[in-house]
């Protein structure tokens, strides 16, 4: 009986983790392995990095990804602190407003920034950075917020009683407590920005191409499947190794987070942060709505009429019911698979290798994954 419980625990871990590992294998590992074996030419492993545009795309991906991450954390920590430590009318609305961009299609985010930014900023690095901040701040709010909400207000008051200034309290108490969550949020944001495709495609100009853009260009426009595969697999391996390292060094620090925060009224500085946050997140969405109702010279409902089939435009055929039905079916199917499988893996899987395995799809860019799945399963019965 002594060894019975550990044996059963291992069995439950394996059984609970099996569906997640099967999903990861079928959706990510097998396609990546298959495309690597079938389409990588040995000469391209090194030669592709010397081809025009590749090193520029890699360099741009790195520096804009790092800068986007730093700016998102810098701007995101202020509303995160207010939302975590204060209770005020409209708080839930502000949380929803901050979260909406992350669940919007990147094409919609790009279009929103084209609508709100002056023409002089279109197709510039600034437009890309602003869109990345707008898109990813919710990651900071959702990741760092729970840790800050668990900070005992008595600790802060004790530090202030001992003569610590607000800046010292923030630097020596608040930030160290949130460091694991900040690193976690920063890691995810960097991956999102490094592998950015939709936002770069819409807001980027000449010379502003990420590695994902270069992978797509080589695979689709140049027909260089081997070179695109080398770039995609290399990118995936580097990001996966970084995630594995992070999971091993940081994964155990997010346990037993409680809510020790008591309701507090907004002070002057927090009111300013709330106002600026609400304005920053309302403006792009409002500009997008405004653009849908306004043409170059006048107000118009043409776009909405075409969308709902009330007006026809030559060359533009939109089947809204069919599009919505297709989106809904795929969304429900993905949710029905991902939620129970993910919950089972989270509840029972405690081994680092399992956590590393289940985040593999997250470390793979959508462009690389889509290309791998398209080529691997381009046959019956999947085609």
Detailed description of the structure:
With 383 residues, this protein is mainly alpha-helical. It has two domains: 1-39 and 293-383, no CATH class; 46-291, Orthogonal Bundle (MetI-like fold). The protein contains 16 helices and no strands. Helix 4 packs across helix 12 (268-292) and helix 8 (166-194) runs antiparallel to helix 11. 29% of the residues are buried.
Order of helices and strands: HHHHHHHHHHHHHHHH
What's the number of structural domains?
2
Assembly state here?
Answer: single chain
Counting DSSP E segments of at least 2 residues, the number of strands comes to: 0
What is the averaged pLDDT score? 82
Distance between the termini: 51 Å
- Kindly estimate the percentage of residues that lie in beta strands according to DSSP: under 5%
- CATH homologous superfamily name of the largest domain? MetI-like
Shape: globular
CATH domain class of the largest domain: Mainly Alpha
The helix-and-strand class reads mainly alpha
Main beta sheet: strand number and arrangement?
Answer: none
How many helices? The count is: 16
Based on the model shown, name its key terms:
single chain, 383 residues, mainly alpha, MetI-like fold, 0% strand
Question: Could you give a quick summary of the protein structure above?
Answer:
This protein has 383 residues and is mainly alpha-helical.
């Amino acid at each position: 009986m002594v060894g019975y419980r550990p044996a059963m625990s291992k069995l439950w871990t394996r059984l609970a983790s099996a569906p997640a590992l099967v999903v990861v294998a079928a959706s990510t590992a097998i396609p990546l392995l298959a495309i690597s074996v079938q389409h990588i030419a040995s000469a391209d492993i090194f030669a592709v990095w010397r081809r025009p545009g590749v090193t520029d795309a890699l360099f741009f991906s790195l520096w804009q990804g790092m800068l986007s991450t730093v700016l998102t954390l810098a701007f995101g920590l202020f509303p995160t602190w207010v939302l975590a430590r204060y209770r005020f009318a409209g708080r839930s609305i502000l949380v929803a407003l901050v979260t909406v961009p992350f669940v919007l299609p990147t094409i919609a985010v790009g279009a929103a920034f084209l609508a709100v930014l002056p023409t002089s900023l279109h197709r510039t690095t600034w437009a890309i950075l602003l869109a990345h901040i707008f898109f990813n701040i919710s990651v900071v709010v959702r990741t760092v917020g729970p840790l800050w909400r668990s900070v005992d207000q008595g600790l802060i008051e004790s530090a202030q009683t001992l003569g610590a200034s607000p800046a010292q309290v923030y630097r020596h108490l608040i930030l160290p407590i949130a460091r694991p969550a900040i690193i976690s949020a920063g890691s995810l944001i960097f991956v999102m920005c490094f592998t950015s495709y939709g936002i770069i495609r819409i807001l980027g100009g000449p010379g502003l191409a990420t590695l994902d853009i270069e992978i797509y260009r080589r695979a689709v426009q140049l027909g260089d499947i081997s070179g695109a595969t080398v770039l995609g697999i290399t990118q995936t391996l580097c990001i996966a190794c970084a995630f594995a390292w992070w999971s091993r060094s940081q994964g155990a620090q997010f346990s037993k987070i409680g809510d020790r925060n008591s309701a507090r009224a907004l002070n002057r500085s927090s009111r300013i942060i709330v106002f600026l946050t609400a304005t920053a997140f309302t403006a792009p969405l409002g500009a997008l709505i405004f653009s849908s109702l306004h043409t170059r010279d006048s107000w118009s409902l043409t776009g909405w009429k075409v969308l709902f089939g009330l007006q026809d435009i030559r060359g533009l055929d939109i089947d809204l019911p069919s599009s919505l039905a297709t989106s809904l079916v795929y969304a429900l199917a993905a949710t029905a698979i991902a939620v129970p499988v993910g919950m089972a893996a989270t509840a029972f899987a405690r081994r680092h290798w399992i956590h590393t395995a289940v985040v593999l799809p997250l470390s793979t860019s959508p462009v690389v994954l889509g290309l791998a799945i398209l080529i691997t399963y381009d046959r019956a019965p999947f085609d």
